[in-house]
Write a structure and sequence with these properties.
alpha/beta; Ribose 5-phosphate Isomerase B, Chain: A; 6 helices
Amino acid sequence: MVIYFGADHKGFNLKDRLKKFLNDQGYEVVDVGNDHYDEADDYPDFAAEVGRKVSLDNEKARGILICGSGAGMDVTVNKFPRVRSVLAISSDQVYDSRRDDDVNVLTLAANFVSDADAEKIVKIFIETDFSKEERHKRRLEKVVNIEMRNGITNPYD
């Protein structure tokens, strides 16, 4: 599994901490930006890059995005086909989101999460498998159908 990271200036420091946290556990991490602290950067640029990467390899890739509120990143990345992002509010919520909804992108709000809680949430996001229960697969298929009806398709298919 490859884990793509993106963060704007508000999430920059937490991103570096979480990348190290995952690298130390042996995970492959790819940082798509920002690669330096820049108060003038824009969250859609990094969310879009993570969205593209996860959309192209949605079975194996995961993404982690961090900005101040988390909302901007989450809204942006969910525009990509086969990307299912959750704006994390707790480790329990992220567990349910992985098990039931097979989310493949985690969005964190740097302004509202402690470093310790962020590490716990990321660990659960990475280690929790999709349940593959029929009811959950059926619901996800309905989401894909909604994407297709609304013209949200992967240009690389």
